[in-house]
Amino acid sequence: MPVPLIVLAVIVFLLLVTLIVCACLAKYLVYPPRPSFQDTFRLEAAMRYLRDYDETKSDYYTVPSFDGYELHAELVRADQPSKKYVILSHGYSYDRHGSIKYTHLFRANGYNCVIYDSRGHGLNKKAPCAFGVVESRDLRALIDDCYARYGSDIFLGLHGESMGSALSAICLGTKPPVRFAVLDCGYADFKSVIEGKLKGFHAPRFYVYPIEWMCRLLFHVSIFAARPADALKENEIPLCLFHGENDGLIPVSHVERLQQATKGVCEVHRFPGADHAQCFLTDEARYLRTLTAFLSNIEQIGGITE
Q1: Which residue from 86, 141, 203, 287 has the highest number of Cβ atoms inside 10 Å of its Cβ?
Q2: Residue 237's CATH number
């Protein structure tokens, strides 16, 4: 075989290998391996995050999203009757059990807590993960459902962790009728997160482009479309941002970009030594103090006297 043909064959072979690898990575991102619903419950219990949570006292229901997709949700009530509600969104590849630890903090402030399984997670039917883009529309359906279910006079806010933070921020771009949002360890854009992971694995950063192509071609979702910072450019809803300074997945620079993007009131609280989604674990007392102060200020502005 002539040398030019050998070189061409090698190039074609390497290209095919690259495309196959990127297709596998795309599938891993869109359909990540997930622990079972029962396993996440046991894991959260082992971490002592469930505490006074009693699943027998929760109200379970489903909410149809914009396209008819059913979302499994659960209401964890406050100790006393209250018009204050918060919807909590969990992180990538987990389920609503990951939100339970935060319900203790909100319930301590008199909030009823709606926790739910994101699209394709938990008890919901299998579906591709869109990194917050489609999931933000699901959250909007849950917001509308809260007002229909619990009354038009409720005081409603959002809390999100990791991808839950990102989808909450993207949802804010639609100007939903909520009073506040607490965003914990969210990303400003998902593309740079993938680039960071590729760098960590010593893989070429340009792989993000064929991975994006494969996500679009095979699963009709886009890595590049998940840009929470862009969604916040017209946001005026008060934000409280948490981020670990030692976050190895989503660098702390992302919280700075989110802060710079929003037009509204925004608090940023960094937690020294905290890795990804570990602010609560690193210093729960500080997390509670900070959240309580933020909620108190927002409630005063909103005229809440409970």
Answers
A1: 86
A2: 3.40.50.1820
